[in-house]
Write a structure and sequence with these properties.
homodimer, 251 residues, Rossmann fold, four-stranded parallel β-sheet, three-stranded parallel β-sheet, 11 helices, 48% helix, 13% strand, globular, pyridoxal phosphate (chains A, B), Tryptophan synthase beta chain-like PALP domain-containing protein (chains A, B), serine racemase activity (chains A, B), threonine racemase activity (chains A, B)
Chain lengths: 251, 251
């Protein structure tokens, strides 16, 4: 049992199928259809819920009790964080001379794993979180020095994979190992997602575009302009290609 | 000086810029705008011509004489063919156990280079050409046992990179080293291009989708069903992502 709409949901669904278990995924009602289809394609059972972090948690708990299952949090689970850390290991294995890694941040599981792994291998490496301005709980938390949720109301961002909030296990890592949180506007998210489609020919989802937008921002240039080899984790491609392409401006 | 609208044009433009030379590219008037923009982006001079193979050749010759340049044919030039052969070397270096490589065919330069390189390293490897039904000069030539051009009229295919015809240096290689030519319909080209966008998350152009369509065709299954490790060369991403996405059916 988990609540997630993207990579984690698909990973749990696939892992469950491969090991002969049942997977139950709770997804916000407004998650892109393509995400739901992917999870169902891996054989999982999907339950829809209201699009709030509280509703996700409540519905997942209800399902867990109903099916007698085990809950795997999409970002706050220490084993999930450790699994995400293998991204950092692989990245540095392939590009050993990286001096900065930019990772989009939602619940903070991916960046926590990457930060622990990468800074263990190279304490001097910089880890930068990239966050939509409209879902900036990590930036707010960093500034306040304590874990803060979203501003009142639902976060409205095209980067639907980054609407979640930091948790008890990810916040301490973000607080101590993440060098900065860079926030980006909705317009920058779309234009940098398009840049990757057009120039790198990779159909990333907007949540991944957030990382590119941050890496190419003035804020990054000012704070990390000395970093010569910057890696960006393109953290997902869960996107309806027709709908996404429609958001790009006419050539 | 060359006539080409895709990879070759960009390669010549970039090579010329890197070596401080001027590049003059002749392109058919109806080439996708994105291809023209890419070539201009690499600093080349573009001359448009009528969209026939004869007009391309004539205009390139006119430009060559006018600027006193050197003509590099996009597919029939032996050094271009040799360069394309490095694709085969790299592919087999990365996946040594391939027993078949599928390559989209237009002028035949890419498949000629790949066939010579791959069959030198592994004489048992199968090389299969993938061609749009609507531009099937290679299939026709193979069947006739002699080089034949297109059917009368302009080839009408969404795979605009494959409208060219075999030449004096590529036909002998295609005749002797290519095991089969598989033709695919326009509908199959679009649906397999979409498959790559959706599942592999790579924004390929339709000419590259031709290779996937052929590899997943009944014809391939019947003739090469014993091949367990099949490589397909995704030969280009020169595509306007908005226009391409519009061609895909609604989810």
């Amino acid at each position: 049992v988990t609540h997630s709409s993207g990579n984690h949901a698909q990973a749990i669904a696939l892992a469950a199928r491969e090991t002969g278990r049942a997977a139950h995924i709770v997804m916000p009602r407004n998650a892109p259809e393509v995400k739901r289809a992917a999870v169902v394609g891996y054989g999982a059972e999907v339950t829809l819920c209201e699009p709030t972090n509280a509703a996700r948690a409540a519905e997942a708990e209800r399902v867990r009790v109903a099916v007698g299952g085990y809950f795997v949090h999409p970002s706050n689970d220490p084993e999930v964080i450790a699994g995400q850390g293998t991204l950092g290991l692989e990245f540095l294995e392939q590009v050993p001379h990286l001096d900065c890694i930019v990772v989009p941040i939602g619940g903070g599981g991916m960046i926590s794993g990457v930060a622990v792994a990468a800074k263990t291998l190279n304490p001097k490496i910089r880890i930068v979180a990239a966050e939509p301005e409209n879902a900036r709980d990590a930036a707010t938390s960093k500034k306040a020095g304590e874990m803060s949720g979203h501003l009142p109301g639902q976060p409205a961002t095209v980067a639907d994979g980054l609407k979640t909030v930091l948790g008890s296990n990810t916040w301490p890592v973000v607080e101590h190992l993440v060098d900065a949180v860079i926030t980006v506007s909705e317009a920058d998210i779309v234009s940098h997602t398009e840049l990757v489609w057009r120039r790198l020919k990779v159909c990333i989802e907007p949540s991944a575009g957030v990382g590119i937008a941050a890496a190419l921002s003035d804020h990054f240039e000012q704070a990390f302009g000395d970093c010569r080899n910057v890696g960006v984790i393109l953290c997902g491609g869960n996107v309806d290609v027709k709908k996404m392409a429609r958001m790009f401006p006419e050539a």
